[in-house]
Structures are given as structure tokens and as C-alpha cells.
């Protein structure tokens, strides 16, 4: 159904991508597009802490220490598979580098700072582990091969199957280096969807051969807000798009139909969270509504150096609205699968800012690698999982410095996360979710001390390191892995659901052919599809998707690697 | 010689059939382009 105007609910990456394609491919004017959103920093964000303290939720929960930086999440790119993202970034100017597109900016930076992780896994008493030895047994190899060989048209056989269930006859799989690396590179948990793991095995099959060094990983020059979101915001504002922030869209008005099977949005109810006034926006026949129906950072909360992040029990802003739509129509998926099972999806992350490079240099010494190359995961020395197995207890990402344009030369910013926040720390004996920023730094130093090859030990410098900390912001994200939650294929709405006349779904909670989620790639592609649909552009002009899972050389290399 | 050729042909035939079966089973030749047709407003 072709339209002449668009209302975007949510101002994240997928809807901004939709707007760019509407303008550039659909030849729309920017002022035909209006965004309504709580904020415009995307789910990944990244900002000086003081910039976010007045945002929704945060402003009612003031932080004592507002210094330093905060990035709720952290992501890596992959040019070879993120083809739609790179196409998008090629269409807009960089926000920080003159005369470069955002794609050229990233390619330029990445070419000068190639990723080659030398300490992907670390274990107390052993130091750096050889992750190149995947540690799979024959049963694991067989089950993984079956998963890789399962065709796209058969993937519904994995409806409602968790990874734990898929590998139930092979618990040793969860103590393999392969699993330690795969779970922490992509953030899978044992209760995540086997169907999604299958998609990853297909779309990321060539990463299989180089996962211990993360050779295929590409990174942006700065945090992804400044390197991806800001170029989009600048471009769209320049084009005349209306970006209305501090709006929480709370409900829909739909056109009544006999069988209530035709989906036509006629109005949106929203709350201005600044004035607390309720507002209503009518949707006419010429207008498309493009809705990002979930965010993995919805309901996220911030702590500080002396305060743990509070546990926010909100269902989530975007997902609450999705739920209201799904209650009215049968084919809009099952939001509860993703947003009513936080035990399966929650994480705690932290963003550590220091006033010097002491900790950074110590990490460089221990991991033998330069900042910017690292995703270091620390394996426990004792069983910590429900299966009484060892597992990764925390991971850190040491960015290339500076990670923020406003960061001072003497400052360091490091990001880390705990995939299972209810587990108890080894050095601070309380669940990670209850830790202050300070206790998380103590836990990190403890983990580093276990793998320190010497001479001396990082713990000897603990007091100096603690003195160097400007702030460490713990962030509780109840839905960080929600997009991986166990599901059936029908639990997510299609980008354009059947019988929809003007409503599209975008982001990480929509069903698209082949695409794996938790990638900027799938988010952008969903926006591209929605834009092409409403602007009347043939789908044959979508960016072609590479299929490495059908490349015999790649498959042969993966098969060989499986025996490493 | 002729017998060897026949056996070789049978062997190659079985291998080709096996490879074809495997390719079909794993969806090697599946094309997902048609899955986007339902979104294509220019086809309506």
C-alpha cells in the first residue's frame, strides 16, 4: 500500500533507516516524515553521563555521581554480513570526519585498526586460553552440523526449542571453548532460541573459522551513537524531518472492521513526558505508521560508583505498545515471549571511566593486545552454571581510545558486561545485579589478577586503580537478550503483516527472511523493507544478501575448524 | 575395461545423486527472493 507521509514510532536505527530510504529512494521530502520517540540515541547509545540523567526514568531517579561516560550496550560490526547497514552509512555524511560518508569514516578507521583479538578467553591459573581449539566432541559436531544443514524452509522444526534443549544429550557442549566464545561474542544464553542460533550459524558461518581472533569484526571510530546515530540524526534534520522527542506513545486507535482482521491505524495516543500532558495524533489515509516494536534497552536503569542499578519492573515502552496491538489482531506476534521472561534476557553492563591509563595499560600487559582489539571473557575456575559447569562470568571490551569525541586524552573508557547478572561474584560475594560500580571494578581487578602472568600482580596496584576511577556506571537491562528469547517463527510480526493497510513493524523483534537479530544489519533491513513498501519501490532493489552458508569453500573451512 | 567404465559410471551416478539429494535436503538451491513478494506494493 503506497503512502505519501509517514509517522515513525521510535527514533532508533531501523526507523531512521526507513526515513533515509523514503527520502533517497522514494524521493519523499523530509517534512513528510515525523518521528515520535522518548529519545533519539538508539538502543546502543553512548554519551557523557550528564547527558542522559534527565531522560525518561532517569530524571526521577537522580544519580549522585554523574561524571564519566555511559554506554548501555556495545556492539561490533561485520561489513561482510552487515550489507544493508553499510549501504545506509554510505548515503549519509560522517558526523565527525569532514568529506567522508559515515561508511567511509568507519572503513577508514577500521583499515587503520584491524581487529585481531589475542586474548579472547582467559582462565584463572591458565592465563590466555587457546580459543582456536574449539573443544567440541563428536556429538557436538554432529548436532552443530545438523543445525547448519537444516534448510531455511525447515527452520520451524526449531520452534520453541531452546539451545539447552537442542544440546540436551550433549551437556559437554556448554563447556567448550566454542560455546564460551559464541555465547559472549553474540550474547546467546542457554535458554535462548535454537532457531536463532541456527540463523547465526548460517549467516555467520565464516566467522566460525576465525572466532578466536574476531578477525571479521569491524568497529566504528567512536561509540556507535556518534558514529552511526548522530550522522543519521544530522542528515534527517537537514532534510526537514520532524523529530519529536519526549513522547511515549501509549495506545492505538484502529479502524473498526467486521472481522477485525484489517489493520488500519487511525490515531495514536501519547504522553508528553516533559509536561505530562496527554496528546492525540490522528492518522489519515495517506499516512504510513512505522513502528519499532521493542527495544533491548527499554526499562534499563543506571547506577553509579556507589549505587547499584535499580531493578525496573516496567514491561518496556515499545513492547507495551506492541502488546496493545497484538491484543487486537491475531497475526502480530507474542510480545510476552520476549518481554515477560526477564530471567532469560537480563544483563548488567558497566561503563568505567578513569582519569589516567593505569588500568588500560595493565589490561594491555595482561592480555598482550592493544586497546581496540579486545573482547576478553573470563572463564570461571569453579562450576557456576545450573548444570554445574564452568562458564564465562564476565566480559570486557577495551575500546580504542578515545571512544567519545569529548573524552580527554588522559581519560580511559572501558565497557563490560555480565551475561548472567544473578550469579555471584568471585571477589565481591554478592550477585552482580546488586553490585555498585565500585564493586564491579573490584571484581574486574580480581578477575584480571587471576590471569596476570606477572611479574607482580595487578592487585598490587588496586588502590591506585581505584583512585583513578572517575565513575563506573552499572546498567541493568532486563531485556538485553530478549531478542534471543525462545520463540516460534510466528511470535514476531512480519515487517508488513498480512491485512495491514498502513502499519509496518521494524527493528529487532520482527520476522524477516534469513536475517539474524541483534545486528544493525537486520534493524536497517527492516526499515528498508518498510520504506520500499510504502514508497512503491520494487523489493528486487533491496540490498542483495550474501549467502556464505551456500559457499562451498566457507563450508569446507568451517567443517575443518570444527575438528580443531 | 568396459566393466570398469560401467562401475565408474554407476559410482559417479550414485555420488552425483547423493550430492543432489544433500543439496536439496539442506536447501542449497533454495532462493528466498520470492519471500519478499508479499511486501512488494508494485506487484499489487
UniProtKB/TrEMBL annotation, chain A:
Transmembrane segments: none annotated. GO terms for biological process: fatty acid metabolic process. It comes from the Bacteria. Coiled coil: none annotated. InterPro entries: FAD/NAD-bd_sf, Oleate_hydratase. One of its GO terms (molecular function) is oleate hydratase activity. PANTHER family: 67 KDA MYOSIN-CROSS-REACTIVE ANTIGEN FAMILY PROTEIN (AFU_ORTHOLOGUE AFUA_5G09970). This is Oleate hydratase. The lineage of its organism: Bacteria, Bacillati, Bacillota, Bacilli, Lactobacillales.
Automatic annotation (TrEMBL), chain B:
It comes from Marinilactibacillus piezotolerans. Keywords: Signal. This is Methanol dehydrogenase. Residues 1-19 form the signal peptide.
Amino acid at each position: 500500500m503506497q503512502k505519501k507521509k509517514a509517522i515513525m514510532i521510535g527514533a532508533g536505527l531501523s526507523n531512521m533507516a526507513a526515513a533515509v530510504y523514503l527520502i533517497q529512494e522514494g524521493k519523499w521530502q523530509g517534512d513528510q516524515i515525523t518521528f515520535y520517540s522518548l529519545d533519539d540515541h538508539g538502543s546502543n547509545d553512548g554519551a557523557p553521563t550528564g547527558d542522559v540523567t534527565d531522560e525518561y526514568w532517569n530524571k526521577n531517579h537522580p544519580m549522585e555521581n554523574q561524571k564519566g561516560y555511559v554506554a548501555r550496550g556495545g556492539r561490533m560490526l561485520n561489513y561482510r554480513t552487515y550489507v544493508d547497514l553499510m549501504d545506509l552509512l554510505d548515503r549519509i555524511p560522517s558526523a565527525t570526519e569532514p568529506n567522508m560518508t559515515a561508511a567511509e569514516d568507519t572503513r577508514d578507521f577500521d583499515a587503520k585498526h584491524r581487529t585481531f583479538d589475542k586474548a579472547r578467553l582467559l582462565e584463572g591459573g591458565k592465563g590466555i586460553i587457546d580459543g582456536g581449539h574449539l573443544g567440541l566432541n563428536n556429538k557436538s559436531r554432529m548436532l552443530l552440523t545438523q543445525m547448519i544443514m537444516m534448510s531455511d524452509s525447515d527452520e520451524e522444526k526449531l520452534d520453541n526449542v531452546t539451545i539447552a534443549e537442542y544440546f540436551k544429550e550433549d551437556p559437554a557442549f556448554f563447556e567448550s571453548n566454542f560455546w564460551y566464545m559464541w555465547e559472549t561474542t553474540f550474547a546467546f544464553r542457554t535458554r535462548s532460541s535454537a532457531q536463532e542460533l541456527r540463523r547465526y550459524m548460517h549467516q555467520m558461518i565464516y566467522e566460525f573459522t576465525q572466532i578466536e581472533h574476531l578477525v571479521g569484526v569491524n568497529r566504528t571510530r567512536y561509540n556507535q551513537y556518534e558514529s552511526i546515530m548522530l550522522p543519521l540524526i544530522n542528515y534527517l534534520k537537514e532534510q526537514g524531518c520532524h523529530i519529536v522527542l519526549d513522547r511515549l506513545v501509549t495506545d492505538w486507535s484502529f479502524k473498526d472492521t467486521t472481522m477485525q482482521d484489517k489493520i488500519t491505524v487511525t490515531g495514536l495516543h501519547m504522553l508528553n513526558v516533559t509536561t505530562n500532558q496527554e496528546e492525540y495524533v490522528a492518522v489519515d489515509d495517506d499516512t504510513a505508521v512505522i513502528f519499532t516494536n521493542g527495544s533491548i534497552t527499554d526499562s534499563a536503569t543506571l547506577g553509579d560508583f556507589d549505587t547499584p542499578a535499580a531493578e525496573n519492573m516496567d514491561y518496556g515502552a515499545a513492547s507495551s505498545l506492541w502488546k496493545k496491538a497484538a491484543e487486537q489482531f491475531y497475526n502480530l506476534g507474542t510480545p510476552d515471549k520476549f518481554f515477560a521472561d526477564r530471567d532469560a534476557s537480563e544483563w548488567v553492563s558497566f561503563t568505567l571511566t578513569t582519569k589516567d591509563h593505569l588500568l588500560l595499560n595493565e589490561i594491555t600487559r595482561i592480555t598482550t593486545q592493544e586497546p581496540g582489539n579486545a573482547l576478553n571473557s573470563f572463564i570461571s575456575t569453579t562450576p557456576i552454571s545450573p548444570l554445574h559447569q564452568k562458564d564465562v562470568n564476565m566480559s570486557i571490551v577495551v575500546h580504542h581510545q578515545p571512544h567519545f569525541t569529548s573524552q580527554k586524552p588522559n581519560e580511559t573508557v572501558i565497557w563490560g558486561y555480565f551475561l548472567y547478572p544473578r550469579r555471584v561474584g568471585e571477589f565481591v560475594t554478592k550477585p552482580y545485579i546488586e553490585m555498585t560500580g565500585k564493586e564491579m571494578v573490584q571484581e574486574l581487578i580480581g578477575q584480571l589478577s587471576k590471569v596476570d602472568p606477572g611479574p607482580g600482580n595487578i592487585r598490587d596496584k588496586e588502590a591506585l586503580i581505584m583512585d583513578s576511577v572517575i565513575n563506573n556506571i552499572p546498567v541493568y537491562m532486563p531485556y538485553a537478550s530478549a531478542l534471543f528469547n525462545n520463540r516460534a517463527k510466528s511470535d514476531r510480526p512480519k515487517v508488513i503483516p498480512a491485512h495491514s493497510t498502513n502499519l509496518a513493524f521494524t527493528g529487532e523483534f520482527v520476522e524477516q527472511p534469513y536475517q539474524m537479530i541483534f545486528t544493525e544489519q537486520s534493524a536497517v533491513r527492516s526499515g528498508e523493507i518498510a520504506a520500499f513498501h510504502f514508497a512503491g519501490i520494487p523489493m528486487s532493489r533491496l540490498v542483495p544478501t550474501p549467502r556464505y552458508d551456500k559457499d562451498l569453500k566457507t563450508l569446507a573451512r568451517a567443517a575443518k575448524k570444527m575438528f580443531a | 575395461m568396459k566393466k570398469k567404465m560401467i562401475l565408474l559410471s554407476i559410482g559417479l551416478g550414485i555420488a552425483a545423486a547423493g550430492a543432489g539429494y544433500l543439496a536439496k535436503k539442506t536447501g542449497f538451491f533454495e532462493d528466498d527472493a520470492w519471500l519478499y513478494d508479499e511486501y512488494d506494493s508494485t506487484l499489487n
